[in-house]
Design brief:
The structure is a homodecamer.
Chain A: H1 3-17, H2 21-28, H3 32-39, H4 47-57, H5 62-67, H6 83-106, E1 110-124, E2 131-142
Antiparallel strand pairs in A: 1-2
EC number (chains A, B, C, D, E, F, G, H, I, J): 4.2.1.104
Enzyme class (chains A, B, C, D, E, F, G, H, I, J): lyase
Keywords (chains A, B, C, D, E, F, G, H, I, J): Lyase
Chain lengths: 146, 146, 146, 146, 146, 146, 146, 146, 146, 146
């Protein structure tokens, strides 16, 4: 049983039970972003969360151990074609140097960690059309000198 | 006088005057992200803000008209090498499909606009090491049917 | 049942019933371009149109829910090889900067949306050989300042 | 004197005289798209139009012969990064197979020529926000059998 | 039944019957290049030629309708590795700019069509070793002005 | 003095003297394709032809030795963007496997040489529009067994 | 039965019979390099050698006709990753321009044929560690003038 | 003074003095391949050979220290376009797996070093046309186990 | 039975027996890095170690001969996407030129062998968070002169 | 004054003074790897080290402020061609998945930081030829759950 198998099981169970990612996340006490990411095989669950996931969706027991294995993260398209994901890529292209400059101004020479990191998505009502809000937070890591 | 020329003038004036992006942004009444982005030639300033920029930094008058021209946005590296920018690219690779799934769950089939869009960066104090917070907000655009 | 499965079912049903895309589109009250695009899995149908599609072509009921799922848009060739599609790519290469300059002249710094967007194709009789006419219309989106 | 030199002269003369592409095109009796495209060195002008262009903008006489030379069309980015041009590329990716299918349905096995071709851009007022309209027309060319 | 299926059937029938492409082409009254190209799924046959092909090789009737469908032309290698095909690619690299210059000199700004096009291959006896002769002919298309 | 320098001199001399490639080729007793190719630095001239070229165009004497140096053939675009050259590339993609199959049928396992090779271009009058004719001839080389 | 099938049969028969490439080559009276290359489907055997191969390894009769078909040579990695093959690629990168310069010095403007070509590999004993010796020989082909 | 500067000086001095690479190599007591490779900046000369080179060609003294610096080896084209170098690349593609298999058969799991390596080129007279002979020899390196 | 088959068997046996790579390595008397690398099919085991591996994990006898075959090393991503492996790639990009300069300073013009090479990984306790230590050692190879 | 300017000044001063990287590093009290990396513009120096560097090499005062600016790290070759750097890239390809597996076994799901990171190079005497030793140490970062 591979991570791909478990992803397929989760998608199928979710569809049959009429669940949402928000709902699944709530039932295991974690955020929807992290929960979906683990379901896609892009992150690993600690044992208790994997157990909760298996119970919430009625998956076979072996799925829990698969959900807690360290994943190998692979994406096939260096430049993503899906418009919804491409817009994020475009933001990195357009605003990447700006984000870098302001991190350097506020912290010094370093980066925002993509490992010690979290991400939230919210729908923000707006009179001219609702907005997507994405909040990222990552630990600042400064370059070593030795 | 090209956008590149004006970028060079701004960087030089900023260094000599010992200014920060936060400070420059404040002096023209805009956000630091947007201000830096215009200074890099990645966005266009409305005429009054271009005027304010030219005054704040003591640039030649022609620079104002250049700052308000529509830019052609070019980045040379499909996969950025700078570690600070690469981490953002990696986040798109790892969390892109998750962001897409949650936008679909919350809104329907569509995207977060990267044009009707804004972005803020904050330093968040944290006992185990301060964190970088990035907040993006873009208008939701749903696919047309016709 | 995946989007690929439904595409195959539609192509097969269309062939057996001797239908055209124009005909299928008319039977569900939508345009041929949008109808074909949904059939290829590149767009999502609202529930009522998906129902109409399933009825018009005698597809199994599950196909309706698949037709209304948000698609992930993927194309494998950064530069398309098929001559009919390549000519469109070439037009973007040759006339892209011109289209950009005229949008800026007519509207300001912004883009034509590819989401709030529609497209029509017509055969135009011409004495020296009939012509293909492609009409695109997309909402203008101006860049935000913040 | 190269095509690049003439492009630079035209851009500079246009800026100093406060002209628009619409205005320049009208003064030589051609469309703005074609006029801009020749100015960018992507198309060649017949001798009389090149003369008119040189007069309208006060360019040196040699520029006329350069404007009428056959250009070599080069674009450096297989996938364009500028958001305004990328949206056109995305449209080819998403709707390319659909356009191909409908050309085949309406005409037979063949293509829309990108040489015997013209293109127009209009601003269409709309209560929810004005729209960009792009109209393309190209001769249908059917594949030979021999 | 796909174009790939029909290609496989043709190759197998040709081998078992000990036929040549010259022979098959003659039996349907077309050229070997065009016949092979249709057999590979790179061109579409008019209905009568598809019928003749099916008869000549004893293929199932459905193959005729597949042979007359408009193909999607795909090649996977931007730079071909097979030495026999690479030499053609190299000729385009080395002599492409020359062919372009001479077309411009003889015709004006335009191209040789690859659609309204035909191609023949002959073996030319030569005392120092026989030669391959390739003759291409395509309609000249001049660029539009509008 | 490099090959690029000599190419520039030739283009300039040709323009000032109002010559054509046909005319230059005739004056040195060679074909226009080969002559243009040497002028572009893609082939080397034997000493006597280089002398004739230098005389015909009034180039400095050193140019003759440069014209007879062995060139390094470089093209920057794996897939050419210029439409006139791209059509040739497309022909290799679409008809390459067919040309290969027919060379194998007529000769055996081998290739058409691109070195012991010549190429001619003619304008062929045609009532529905004149045609470009390209004739290539290369020595057949069969694979060695050892 | 494809070339891939025959390659697999040969590898399996070789393993079971405990043969070496040297031994197989000797039994059909050819060199090990050429024999291995045909076994991999990268070269074609004349009928008698294909018969000898089939006998030597106890392959089914159809394999002989497959071994003598003209192959399509494909390699998937433009830059090979296997270290043993990469070293050869590196040699082309580092010494390619040198080999070219010396061929030009010794022969004139032309190439070493990779078709009328042979290659041998030997183990050369050496006190500081044995060495691999690779000897290539290909016919010189000079560029045509016409 | 860079390696590029010294390469240019060497090429110019060689041309003016009418020397050959064979001759230069002989005058410093090394092989032509290695000598040319150092002249191109692809290898470093020991101090005495660099001195001999400087004397033989009348270069400024500083050139000697540049010739003995460790070079950074860069080639810009992953797939070389020059036909003479491409043929070598093609040989790696076609015969690479064969060379690997025979090294494994003769030595075990390992490679031919491209560092402890030498290469010679000879013209071999042949009645059907002279041949280029390339001899490479590199130390066998077996993989470590630890 | 291929290297991929044996890798799958090893992963499955390891999971069922609850073993670690450290443990497996110890049981065959080799390092964990080398042992894992052979298990992944990236290195070949000498016969006795392959036998020990087969015994330690209860694999079928044929697996031993497969483990000792010379592997073809393939990686599909020129730039790895997995964050754990990407960081190593980034280190090569950032510190590669530095490592090269210091090897040249300490040894002369040459390289660190990746064949006569070993690698160890250790966990180093640290009060601010434990550290990963990677130690590589490879034989220095100096460039030949000939 | 850019980072490139300062790199050039440092290389020139180092050559004229006959210094080594070891020596320069010692004089500013840092490691040779880090010192060289800052000199190449790949890392930033704290103010005191930049001052020490400027003094040690007699650079102009402005160089100190440049040395302490946050760099943008760029490398142009996704796959490095220089053999000394390529070997490091090859090690990542061959041993990357192994290093990842052992980090997961020793620590859990996470990475070795390339920011909170140091690197040392030593020459290790060995009777069969001296060896290059590279030691890397980076902080382990475990993936967040939220």
């Amino acid at each position: 049983m591979t991570k791909e198998d478990v992803t397929a099981m989760i998608l199928s169970a979710k569809k049959q039970a009429g669940l949402t990612w928000e709902g699944i996340a709530e039932s295991i006490g974690m955020s929807p972003v992290w929960t979906h990411s683990c379901a896609m095989g892009m992150n690993a669950m600690p044992a208790d969360k994997a157990e909760a996931m298996v119970k919430a969706l009625g998956l076979p027991q072996e799925a829990a151990s698969v959900l807690s294995e360290s994943p190998t993260k692979v994406w096939a398209q260096a430049v993503p074609t899906d418009p919804c994901i491409y817009r994020l890529y475009e933001i990195v292209g357009v605003y990447g140097p700006t984000i870098k400059a302001l991190i350097h101004e506020k912290f010094g020479d370093g980066i925002m960690s993509a490992i010690d990191f979290d991400l939230h998505i919210t729908r923000v009502p707006h009179e001219k059309g609702d907005r997507v809000k994405i909040e990222m937070s990552g630990k600042y890591l400064g370059y070593n000198a030795w």
